[in-house]
Amino acid sequence: MAARLLTMSSQKRTTLEKGQKIQVTIEKVAHGGHFIARHEGAVIFVRHGIPGEECTIEITSVGSSFNRGDVLQVTSASPDRVSAPCRYAHRNGCGGCDFQHISLPRQRNLKSDVITEQFARIAKMDIQVEVEEVSGPLGWRTRCSAVTTKSGALGFYQARSHKIVPVDDCRILVPEMKFAELAQRGAKGEQKIEISISSTGERTIATAPSSDESPLRISDGPDIAHYTVGSNTFEVSQKSFWQSHKDAPQVLTEAVLTYAELTTGDHVLDLYGGVGLFAASFLDAIGSGGSVDIVEGSKSATADASRNFAGVDNVKIHTGDVARLITRFSTADVIVLDPPREGAGKDVIEHCAGLTPRTIVYVACDPAALARDTAYLRDCGYELVALRAFDLFPMTHHIESIAQFQPPKVS
Known about the structure:
This protein is 23% helix and 30% strand. The chain is of the alpha/beta class. It folds into three domains: 13-79, CATH 2.40.50.140; 108-136 and 241-406, 3-Layer(aba) Sandwich (Rossmann fold), CATH 3.40.50; 143-223, no CATH class. It has an eight-stranded mixed sheet, sandwiched between helices. A six-stranded mixed sheet has the order 1-5-6-4-3-2. Strand 14 and strand 15 (232-237) form a beta hairpin. The longest helix has 20 residues, at 104-123.
């Protein structure tokens, strides 16, 4: 009985309260821009820490399985702690950049740790990958979603909050967006605002009331902008997806093309193909005897793709749910998929494997979804043979990865 009582006592956890201030040691990085800390058995996801630091934190929310907190004061700082270049990057500031307090090499190391942890936990695989530097940490973002206060001040939301933090400039945006000028000018109150600038310098601003689900309307600039990637130029509507990092389209296209290992005459299935960024890069490799089928759910994106491939006979564009439309195909030599953050999922993965492509290339913006779908692919007979990760979201916890899958080679 004594042993049973001891076990029950050792499992007892402290009940924390919102607003409580406690001293903790920051342990490891967690998926989502947080860091793990523990206090008398209670697990806490902490923002603005670095592993190894001794900190005073404030509990910001409590739950049955974990709690959340913010660093108030660092009593023993990591050598990788730096001064944030943006004065709004703090616990009461803008929620957009969660890693500005960390040196750039350590940011990338932490992102590598996240990939390793997600693959170990979800796919039961030991994966080590370097997150590759792509550009400088500031002035890289070409698209943003902002909001205005009641008085019309331009800003961004705090982390996990509906509170708007007015900002006079955003350091990670490309200078050509002229965000500071827009902030100084102000706007109509209680608006959501999307700002984008193309590689050819076309700036588009779309607005809608933030209080409801009204569609965004163009208030400045063209609805269709032009983006140049290598020798290809794409028409991209304001509603269509385009990579936000200025260098991402070129970097990802080159990596996808390398992993696809295309040959003349290949039939390529381009799932979640958007406006055709990757598809355009396939055409030289597959030649006139090859073909590409773009499958995409966004009507805006497929309308753009139809213009981008006007007169190209060996590219077909299909609008609709990928999980439904993929069942119409009976074979493919190569499949490329670039799903949204939640990943492709089991049904799509099983259909991909059922088409028996020699190579599957998976572009992922969430390592957890990639690890889950990697496990599904393994169950379907496809092995992960190569993986790259890119720091296309410096100063934030986000990561972009590209994985290559193939059936086991028979000796």
